[in-house]
Structure formats: C-alpha cells, structure tokens
C-alpha cells in the first residue's frame, strides 16, 4: 500500500462513512475522555546526562491521551506508524538513521491507516500512551514514548 | 592481412585499456602519505580473478615485501561479483615516489603515491586548528561589518582573523565529485588523504559495510604514535559530528555516531568539549541515542576525566589536576550564539547554561598547555554551517563573530607562546553573498523594494554600545542583506528570525521539500522558488575554494592554491610527525 491509498478517516469524513463510524465509535467509547498532553509536559527534567519523564507523563501511562503536533512524513509508505514532532520537521527523517531526531518525539501507531497529513498542518493525535523503550521490529526504530491504537485529525 | 592484424591489435589494446581502468587501488593515484603512518591498501578487481593470477608490485618488488602487514585475498567480495586484496595496517618508512602495479590476467592498474617525510625536529610545539564549519567569504565580511561597522567604505575595526599573516586557497572537492561535505573535507585536513562525501578517515570502497573501508591514519592517531602531546577537541556541535569525528575516527558513513563515539574514546583526547551527550548514555536512559548499554560518561570518568555539564562546572573543571576534561553541554547540537546569548530561543530553555565557543577554547588551551610536550587543539565553530543550511544568515554571522572570538583567544595564547601555529579555515563554503541592505525606513510595505543595492545599500546601522563585539540588536532598521544562491522553495522574510532558527522548507508525503508556511504571513514575505532537487531540505555547500589563514612557525607552508589534503602535510611537518618524539 502506498501513501496515496491510505484511507482518510478524519472526524468529518468518518461521520459520512458508516464503516468509519462503526470502527471509530466503540474505540472512543471504550476509552475515558483523553487527557491532553503537550510536548513541554513530557519531561520532568532535561539534562545532558539524560531526561526524566514528568510525573504527568508517568501518570498517564496506558491511559488515553491527546497530543497536538506535526506529522513527520512516514518512514515507509506502508508503515502504520509515524513520528509526531513539536515543530514541522525540516530534516529528512530516517534519511540516514534516527540519529538526527530531536529528543522529544512521540511515535504514533495508528489503529487504522490514515492519509498522510501535510507536514505544514497541526494535527491532534488521540490514543493510548505507552512509555518505555521499544524497538519497532520492522524498522529498528527505537522509541521511548508512543501513542498506540491512535487516530488523528487536523486541528 | 596487414590491415586485419592492425585492427586486431587495436581492438585488443582498446579492450585492455577499458578493463584496466576498472580496477581500483586504494590509496588512490596521486595519494600523499606520511612516511611511517599505518594505512590499509586495497585493490578492487573488476571481476572474479584467481589468486594465483594476481600480482601486486611496488616499484617492481612484490607488495608484501615492501608493505608487510596482513594480506587477505577475497575471491568474491560482498556486494560485488569480483575479487579484491586487502593489505591491513601497512606502512612505508622511506619517503619517495612509489609506483603500484596490480595485475590479474588482463586487468592492470597502475597508481603512484608520494610518500613524504617531515622535518626531523618540530617547528611548532603547539598547533591550534580552528575550523569555521562552512565558513565562506560572506560570513567573514558580514561578521566584520556587523561587529565593527563601516564608515565611508572603510571597516571601523578588524576581526581577529583579519590579522593572520599567511593564507592559501583550499580546494575542497571530494574523490567522487566536485561537491563536498564536512566529512570528506575535515578528513582531508586531518589525514592528508581526500575521500568521498560522508567518509571519515577511510577511502570509500565498493562494499556496503561502512566499517570495512581502507583506513588512513588520523591526526590524533599520528600524535599518539609519535609524540606525547595532548589532544583537544572543542565544538558547538555533537562531538560525533563529522568535523570533530574526523580528528580521530574512521567510517564510510558519518552517521555512524555511536561507533564514532567509541572510536574517539579509544584515542582519548585529553580535552573534549561539545554537545552530543545522547551518544554517551546507555540506551535505557531517556535521551540516549545508543543501541547498547555502554555508559561513556562513566567510562571517561573511570579513565580519569573530570566531567562538566554546564558553564559553571566547566569553569570549575579548569582547576582540575587530572589533566583531562570531558565537557558535555547538550544532548544534541549546542545552540547558536544568537539563541544562547541573546534571544534564549532554540533549545536554550532546556539547556540554559551552555558555555560558548570562546570560553570552551580558553578552558581547553589552559588545560592542554599544561602538557610540557605541547598540544594539538581542534576548535570548530559548528553553527556557522548549521545555521547557513537553513539560510538563517543572522545566526550564521553571529556564530562567525563568536568563532572569531575563539580565534582571538588562540592568538593571544600564541603571542606569549610563539612556538604555537594557528590555522584558521573553513572546511567547505556555502552559496551565500552579501548583496546590500534591507532598509525598513524605505516607503511602502513591499519588502522587496526595501532591499538596497549598489549606492542605495548605504551602510547598516548596527550598534555595539556595550562593546562586546556583538551588535546590540540584530533587527536594526537598516541591516545586511545576505542571499543564498541556492535552496529549496522557501519564504524570504527579509528579517531576522527572532522566534527561533529558520526552517525554510518541510517535507511532504512525496519526500519533497516545500516552503514552510509558518513564514507565509510575515508581512512582505515572498516565495522564493527553489533551484535544487526537490528532495533537498536546505541550502547546499558550495564548491568554491575555502580561504585558509595561518600564523606562527610552519605557517610559511601555506600559500597559493592547495588541495585540502596538502594542509595535513604542513601540519605534519610543523610537528615533525615523521620523527618519533614520544618516550
């Protein structure tokens, strides 16, 4: 599947799609109202010798959250994940490795495929927050903070 | 019959010539090699050949007799349906011209190496090698005008670098292209060998493995082999970035930062100051960019290094008697001077106490100069390049001013220590020029019409009331207009970017860079159509020569036009690296 064949399920479109509603509503209902989390709130302390997660981030582990940011272009067209960044990404993600990523990125694993959103647009991602090191088996990409079972829409 | 015979001969010759040109010998033809320095030699044949058919001679003698070292014949190389021979860690002790001939059946390749010796006694005790990453003529001119001003066409003051005695034009091209990057350029300075874009301390062979390429000796390794001198590396970038990496490491791929961090540890420069702590932290620590459990902070501490993680700790570390300082001031690249010292933008909120290049240079020289055998210090003004890529000229120029302050520190040291050679240079250039000014006082709202060219440019109105060498503010009403000659689609705002470094273009789903709409609504902004391929994210390096300047003993070796790799030879000669000086 290439990027252009992603199914678009923004809230507006989902309302017009019976299948979309069927997919989306149970997921939304199953979750409590998501707590909003910002990039600034992710870390309690940021230092040369490492970062520590904030109490807020830790307390939201495995709970529904929503976060606003920018979508970095997907690693591979068929990947079901993308990277959410605080500012639009200018450097080429994955061009060489994950070496050039900023510290505060959130990896988003989508519940359903969605169309790539232009990197110029702010999006809001909703899903379950996962904290802890995890290596993506397909790409080797290491993440510390993830939003899984996620969906997003433009703000 | 005679005609046919002639034709056959001609065809045979042609075929032989074609095949012969496909064999590659590393080091490449016209390589210059420091006598006694270890290097790897590799012959890549065009096809699979039998080991028994292969001969490699050096000035007519079997190569193994001349070179020594380990020899391995590989019948079929990874990634190539062809054979190769590797000679690992070989040396040539005697200076002179060496002709290398590799033959296998019909394949023949001949290259010539110039093995050079050095003076027997050093001319310089210390060398301070200051690299403005991407430093171009426009950066220098802009730094001079912004820092000192200009009246009636004459500069009101001079940069430190303006008073260096000797100079040369440096050709920066890589082995595979006229174009170039910080890896191959710094590698040429620090090894005396040109190489390929993205490569450091190696010749770029045909196999994909980035760690198996034929190595050449780095400056740090040569110093450890021949001298007891102290070694220092100071940068505002990640310490694993190409420029600092090239002082002490070997990889085909500059992105191998975790490996580079290990290679730098293996050499253990005495003073290491910069960013990139992410590669020092074990993977379990949030913020780490390693994929293993190595804790380099602890490893360095165990090896006797005093650790500093901010400005205050660096100051304290100056008094250390351990002789070794590890200063890590950012997980990634340190912030630009404009953000760090003035605007407090970028990542300064997260890393508020980063020292500047001037302070780091001072601490490094204080520490290294305690070594009675002298020192080699590499200082990099990294953000000149890091801010030129995104066309953020105000930041690039402010970093040039800071770089010049570090040069002043070095020149002051050399004044009282005249056995010190100072080299100031860029590694490559950027496609940028100053074309005039932007004057807000001109009528109207069309910013393009406020650009002053020729006589209309007038002089900018920066001030430096506090005399710190930096303009009191960057967003004066009549300011320098620097323009890039290349780049992706972007919005030209004609103004300094006070909210944080410029991000000219961002990637779309087709992996093409499009103008960042964040700047679309800045009053008077105009869309500038890009002129490089659409997968290019920012402005690119120029192929233009770099201007190198130098002072002190040995600096007379710099003159006219020089290949970047020839700079190493001047350094090696100043330090007499052909002669064993270590106990």
Automatic annotation (TrEMBL), chain A:
Keywords: Signal
Keyword Signal found: yes
Record Gene3D superfamilies: Protein of unknown function (DUF3299)
Signal sequence interval, chain numbering: 1-32
Descriptive protein name: DUF3299 domain-containing protein
Annotated organism of origin: Tianweitania populi
From TrEMBL, chain B:
CDD domains, A to Z: ALP
Cofactor annotation: Zn(2+); Mg(2+)
Keyword Coiled coil attached: no
Binding-site list for Zn(2+): 133, 385, 389, 427-428, 541
GO molecular function annotations of the record: alkaline phosphatase activity; metal ion binding
One Pfam family linked to the record: Alk_phosphatase
Name of the protein this chain belongs to: Alkaline phosphatase
Binding residue positions for Mg(2+): 133, 241, 243, 380
Family: Belongs to the alkaline phosphatase family.
UniProt xrefs under InterPro entries: Alkaline_phosphatase (IPR001952), Alkaline_phosphatase_core_sf (IPR017850)
Keyword terms of this UniProt record: Magnesium, Metal-binding, Signal, Zinc
Residues in the signal sequence: 1-22
Cofactor: record remark: Binds 2 Zn(2+) ions. Binds 1 Mg(2+) ion.
Active site: 182
Database matches in Gene3D superfamilies: Alkaline Phosphatase, subunit A
């Amino acid at each position: 599947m290439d990027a252009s064949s992603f199914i678009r399920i923004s809230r507006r479109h989902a309302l017009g799609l019976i299948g979309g509603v069927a997919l989306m509503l149970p997921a939304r209902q199953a979750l409590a109202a998501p707590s909003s989390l910002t990039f600034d709130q992710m870390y309690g302390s940021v230092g040369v010798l490492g970062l520590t997660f904030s109490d807020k981030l830790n307390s939201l582990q495995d709970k529904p959250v929503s976060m606003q940011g920018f979508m970095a272009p997907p690693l591979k067209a068929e990947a079901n994940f993308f990277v959410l960044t605080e500012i639009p990404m200018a450097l080429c993600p994955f061009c060489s490795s994950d070496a050039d990523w900023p510290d505060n990125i959130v990896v988003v694993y989508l519940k359903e495929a969605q169309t790539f959103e232009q990197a110029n647009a702010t999006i809001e991602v909703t899903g379950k927050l996962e904290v802890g090191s995890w290596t993506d088996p397909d790409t080797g990409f290491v993440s510390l903070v993830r939003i899984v079972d996620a969906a997003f829409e433009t703000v | 019959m005679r005609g046919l015979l002639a034709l056959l001969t001609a065809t045979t010759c042609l075929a032989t010539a074609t095949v012969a040109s496909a064999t590659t010998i590393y080091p490449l033809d016209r390589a210059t090699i420091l006598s006694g320095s270890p290097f790897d030699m590799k012959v890549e044949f065009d096809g699979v050949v039998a080991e028994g058919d292969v001969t490699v001679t050096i000035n007519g003698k079997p190569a193994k007799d001349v070179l020594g070292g380990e020899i391995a014949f590989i019948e079929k190389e990874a990634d190539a349906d062809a054979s190769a021979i590797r000679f690992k860690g070989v040396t040539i002790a005697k200076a002179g011209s060496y002709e290398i001939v590799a033959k296998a059946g019909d394949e023949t390749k001949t290259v010539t190496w110039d093995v050079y010796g050095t003076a027997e006694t050093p001319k310089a005790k210390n060398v301070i090698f200051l690299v403005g990453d991407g430093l171009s003529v426009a950066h220098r001119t802009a730094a001079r005008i912004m820092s000192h001003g200009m009246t009636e066409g004459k500069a009101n003051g001079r940069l430190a670098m303006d008073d260096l005695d000797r100079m040369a034009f440096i050709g920066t091209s890589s082995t595979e292209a006229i174009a170039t990057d910080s890896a191959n350029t710094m590698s040429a300075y620090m090894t005396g060998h040109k190489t390929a874009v993205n490569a450091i301390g190696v010749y770029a062979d045909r196999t994909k493995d980035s760690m198996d390429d034929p190595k050449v000796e780095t400056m740090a390794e040569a110093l450890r082999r021949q001298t007891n001198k102290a070694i220092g590396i100071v940068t505002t970038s990640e310490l694993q970035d190409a420029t600092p990496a090239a002082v002490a490491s070997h990889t085909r791929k500059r992105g191998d930062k975790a490996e580079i961090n290990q290679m730098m540890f293996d050499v253990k420069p005495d003073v290491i100051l910069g960013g990139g702590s992410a590669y020092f932290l074990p993977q379990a620590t949030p913020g780490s960019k390693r994929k293993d459990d190595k804790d380099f902070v602890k490893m360095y501490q165990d090896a006797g290094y005093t650790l500093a993680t901010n400005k205050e700790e660096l100051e304290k570390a100056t008094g250390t008697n351990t002789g070794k300082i590890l200063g890590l001031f950012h997980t990634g690249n340190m912030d630009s001077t404009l953000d760090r010292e003035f605007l407090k933008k970028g990542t300064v909120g997260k890393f508020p106490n980063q020292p500047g290049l001037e302070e780091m240079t001072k601490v490094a020289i204080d520490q290294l100069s305690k070594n009675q055998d002298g020192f080699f210090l590499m200082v990099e003004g990294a953000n000149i390049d890091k801010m030129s890529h995104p066309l953020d000229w105000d930041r690039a120029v402010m970093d040039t001013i800071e770089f010049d302050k570090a040069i002043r520190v070095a020149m002051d040291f050399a004044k009282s220590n005249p056995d010190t050679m100072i080299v100031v240079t860029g590694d490559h250039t950027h496609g940028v020029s100053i074309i005039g000014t932007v004057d807000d006082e001109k009528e109207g709202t069309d910013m393009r019409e406020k650009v002053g060219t020729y006589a209309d440019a007038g002089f900018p109105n920066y001030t430096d009331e506090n005399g710190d060498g930096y303009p009191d503010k960057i967003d004066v009403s009549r300011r320098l207009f620097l323009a890039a000659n290349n780049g992706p689609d972007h919005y030209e705002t004609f103004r300094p970017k006070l909210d944080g470094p410029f991000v000219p273009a961002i990637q779309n789903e087709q992996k093409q860079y499009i103008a960042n709409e964040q700047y679309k609504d800045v009053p008077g902004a105009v869309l500038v159509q890009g002129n490089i391929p659409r997968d290019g994210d920012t402005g690119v390096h120029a192929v233009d020569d770099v201007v190198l300047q130098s002072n002190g003993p040995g600096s007379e070796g710099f003159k006219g036009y020089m290949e970047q790799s020839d700079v190493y030879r001047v350094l090696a000669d100043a330090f007499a690296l052909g002669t064993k000086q270590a106990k």
